[in-house]
What we know:
The chain is 82% helix and 0% strand. The protein has 15 helices and no strands.
Amino acid sequence: MTTPLLNVILASLILVVLQVIVAIPWLVAFDGRPFKKWATDATVLSYLAGGTVVGAVVLGWYLRQVGELTELERYGRYFGALFHLQLILDFIILAPRAILLVWPKGGAVAISALRESLRQPMFWLIFALATLLIIVSTFIPYFTLGDDYKLMKQVGFDAVMLFSALFGLLTASISVNEEIEGRTAITVISKPVSRRQFFIGKYLGILLACWAMTMLLGWVLTWALHFKPRFDPLDDAIDPMPMEVAKWMAPKVDWLVPTTEGSAFARGMGTWLGETTAHHIGLFRVFGQVMIMLAICTALATRVQFIVNLVICLGIFLVGNLSPIMVHVTQKPENEGNPALQLVSFIAQLFNAVFPALDSFDMGPAIIRDTPLATSSFIGFVTMVMTYTVLYTAVAILSGLLLFEDRDLA
């Protein structure tokens, strides 16, 4: 039975209102006026209300024209992807302002660092290269006899981590060191902004830019993982965790929208949001590595030049990933009694204790496994990894503050 057009339009109004609500922050930022003046402008509000009603009528008419529920779910996925992209823009706009409210002086430095990072052509160049790699990884064969999807997913998460970390390290090593060497840091610190506020604000601003790139690449990765099975239809592309989260979230969105057509459209939207939520749990895990490496790089940038900083960070990255493997290999029972291996084992354990355990951020074991990993168990593990990340990052930040405290800026 076909739903009356007026009912479909009312259901569409709920969906359009959701899109308008999440669009308000970046519309205000684009307009440039303070929110209070923007929200009390009758002209702006009339245009916004009129556009919302027109959008609801157009969407409702379109839902009635399509009719087929499978097609409506597919278009709902596109609608959900647009909703997700607007949430990313909202975070980029609102997060630094939230920091500014809590921490005015340091937040001002963070906002400046974020804007400087996002305006750099390097940000968009690295983002474009990472996007290209993720897209290409969707088409190339991996010759894994049925596990191409899993390997492509691991390549995608590694690409997101590596390119976000690369941008963060390049920006921190150049920006912080140039401001100190170019004496511009003296002007900032005399505002008055303390050295602590300048250093931590710089770190937070660049970190927010790295997370913005991670979220944008995560959006691209979700699309790539959605289309991958369509290019390899014989591959076993069952992904339990996104399916589990999507199965939980889709009915929640479906419940908000009445009518048969609107519910089908909303289910597609909920499916996208469920899948991308599951993927973002993994993105949180790999982003922990970016947080640690960026903290180390920012601390070193107060003392060493750009090239030296990158070489040291590369060494820490390699040692942090290889030392757990060295510890595992040298502690095998068959290697006991070998003096040379005992020395290697001692050095490996020393490196493993001092340097960050970067192998904890590898998504490979969670993706390439025979038994599906429960979502609750994975969230618990990611929580422990992020706790370790915060502690190690705090140590690196404190070390950087000590290095910066007695640095001569004159």
